């Protein structure tokens, strides 16, 4: 009886190990803070993943203090010949500044694998919203993208 239990346990361990996906990966993470003309702030976060074409990838983004989190289905975008997964819909509550510091993102793949990455968000908090602009632009001195 004990021999049979050990055999079953060994089979279960082999099956579980073969089911884990060592192929899932996340790299090339790009985070860009932005501010809209009405003063609301947000974050654009995109990364390269090992997800296949049209494969759903979810992400849970958490602020440095762990007080706020966003659960999002990542969209697929092509840039410079590479496919990125992410979102620009990480919006702060009205009249709240985007927290600076080390954020985290949990990337959830369809096979159940979760990969956690951390990233830095920083910008010059003394920024002023320019008047009368009609196109989005990046300001390198503040590290902010301004959106109409």
Please estimate the helix content: 10-25%
Average pLDDT confidence is 87
Structural class assignment: mainly beta
- Computed over alpha carbons, the radius of gyration is 20 Å
Q: What order do the strands of the largest sheet run in, or round the barrel if closed?
A: 5-6-2-1-10-9
Shape: globular
Distance between the termini: 72 Å
Major β-sheet profile: 6 strands, mixed
Structure annotation, total helices: 1
Measured by DSSP, the beta-strand proportion falls in: over 45%
Low-confidence stretches: 5-21
Number of strands: 10
Word description of this protein:
The protein has a six-stranded mixed beta sheet, with no helix packed on it. Strands 4-3-7-8 form a four-stranded antiparallel beta sheet, with no helix packed on it. 12% of the residues lie in helices and 46% in strands. A hairpin with a 5-residue loop joins strand 7 and strand 8. Mean pLDDT is 87; it is low at 5-21. The chain is built from one helix and ten strands; from the N terminus they run αββββββββββ. It is mainly beta.
Layout of secondary structure:
Layout: H1 2-19, E1 26-36, E2 41-49, E3 58-62, E4 69-73, E5 75-79, E6 82-91, E7 101-108, E8 114-121, E9 137-139, E10 144-147
Parallel strand pairs: 1-10
Antiparallel strand pairs: 1-2, 2-6, 3-4, 3-7, 5-6, 7-8, 9-10
List keywords for this structure.
single chain, 10 strands, about 150 residues, mainly beta, 1 helix, 6-stranded mixed beta sheet, 4-stranded antiparallel beta sheet, about 10% helix
Write a brief structural summary.
The chain is mostly beta strands. It contains one helix and ten strands, in the order αββββββββββ.
